[in-house]
Design goal:
It contains nine helices and two strands. By secondary structure, it is mainly alpha-helical. It has a two-stranded parallel sheet with strand order 1-2. Helix 4 crosses helix 5. It starts with 9 loop residues before the first helix and ends with a helix.
């Protein structure tokens, strides 16, 4: 059995992680797709739906921060990230993400995403009201902390 060596540089890690297409749970994926076509919903409402799927949230945040380029200011919330890339671009990005029934998502990936969602909910419960200014940062850091491991 041959093993592939792990990347050693940040650029190599980013290239490796970009090459992996993670599946999103079919339920939240379908709700997001419907929301993107509903002109009566606000960016906030759509971002709340995207938040239900860690994979979709990661996709939006990564794309927004990748295209930040000249500003060098990362998107501090999903709503900002969605506004930055636009609904059409988000729709095109999500078209590349496969939707899968939860039982069809590999168990280790499902477990890591559940741990990430749980950490995010704990952060909301513990810190959201006391650290209102840092709420978004704590939330997204908790949700996406393990995201590089999702691809492994």
């Amino acid at each position: 059995m041959t093993t592939t060596p792990y990347p050693r540089t940040l650029a190599a890690w980013l290239k490796t992680l970009d090459a992996v297409v993670l599946p999103a749970a079919a339920g939240p994926y379908a709700r997001v797709q419907r929301a993107l076509g509903d002109s009566s919903l606000s960016m906030r409402e759509i971002s709340d739906l995207i938040q239900e799927s860690p994979v979709l949230a990661l996709t939006v945040i990564r794309e927004a921060n990748r295209s930040a380029g000249s500003t060098n200011k990362p998107a501090e919330s999903l709503e900002v990230a969605l506004s930055r890339i636009g609904l059409k671009r988000a729709e095109a990005l999500f078209a590349k993400v496969p939707a899968a029934q939860p039982n069809d998502i590999p168990a280790p990936l499902r477990q890591l995403m559940l741990i990430s969602s749980h950490a995010s909910q704990q952060a909301n419960g513990l810190f959201a009201s006391r650290l209102a200014r840092l709420w978004q940062e704590i939330h997204w850091s908790s949700l996406l902390f393990l995201s590089p491991a999702w691809a492994l």
